[in-house]
């Protein structure tokens, strides 16, 4: 973590720091469980970190990465998207298969850019957006590792993502002076 990340992380309210720490502990536990044979179906660990400040989102993900002590793989959504629905689905499937095999923490940074303003896609038709969102959410539901999305505003995220996420942590609640 950089000095800026530490300074920002220290400025977060105790409740936010606790929520980020609990998320990190759960992610670490999930990654450890991923290495053992599966005894039953576990719900996915999907988290959303919200803040209009990129440095706060970066600080929180750095705290999580430090606690998890596992590789954090930042996902470039634009590299997964294709004008062809089937290719997008295959790309999403490959990403999650590789992440499960490697035991990494997936991070979709700037998730509001995935969906554009008001949950709408950038440069894609509505049907392509819905199929890529569905492919992502379906594969995430079967993923055994932790997934984190960061975003500037809740309103830019797809309602299905917000419904699947637990926890959704608002990083803007800072410690009072």
- Strand order within the widest sheet? 2-3-4-1-5
What series of H and E elements makes up the topology? HHEHEHHEHHEHE
Instruction: Give the overall form.
Output: globular
Radius of gyration equals: 16 Å
| Model regions low in confidence, pLDDT < 50 over at least 5 residues | 118-122
What summary fits the major beta sheet? Answer: 5 strands, parallel
> Could you estimate the helical fraction of the residues in percent?
40-55%
The tally of strands reads 5
- The end-to-end span amounts to 24 Å
SS strand fraction: 5-15%
For this entry, what is the oligomeric state of its chains?
single chain
Q: In terms of structural class, how would the helical and strand content be classed? A: alpha/beta
Q: What average pLDDT do the residues reach? A: 77
Folded structure, characterized:
The chain is of the alpha/beta class and about 180 residues long. About 55% of the residues lie in helices and about 10% in strands. The chain is built from eight helices and five strands, in the order ααβαβααβααβαβ. It has a five-stranded parallel β-sheet with strand order 2-3-4-1-5. α1 packs across α3 and α5 runs parallel beside α7. The chain is globular and about 45 Å long. The two termini are about 25 Å apart. Residues about 120 have low confidence and may be disordered.
């Amino acid at each position: 973590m950089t000095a800026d990340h530490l300074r920002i992380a220290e400025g977060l309210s105790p409740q936010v720091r606790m929520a980020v720490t609990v998320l990190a502990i759960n992610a670490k536990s999930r990654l450890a469980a991923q290495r053992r044979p599966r005894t039953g179906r576990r719900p996915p660990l999907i988290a959303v970190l919200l803040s209009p400040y990129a440095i706060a989102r970066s600080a929180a993900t750095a705290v999580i990465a430090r606690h998890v002590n596992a590789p954090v793989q930042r996902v470039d959504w634009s590299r997964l998207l294709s004008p062809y629905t089937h290719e997008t689905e295959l790309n999403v499937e490959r990403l999650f298969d590789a992440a499960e095999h490697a035991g990494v923490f997936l991070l979709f940074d700037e998730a509001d850019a995935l969906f554009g303003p008001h949950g709408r896609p950038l440069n894609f038709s509505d049907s392509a957006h819905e199929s890529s969102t569905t492919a992502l959410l379906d594969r995430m539901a079967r993923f055994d590792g932790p997934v984190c999305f960061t975003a500037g505003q809740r309103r830019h995220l797809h309602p299905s993502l917000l419904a699947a996420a637990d926890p959704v942590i608002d990083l803007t609640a800072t410690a009072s002076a």
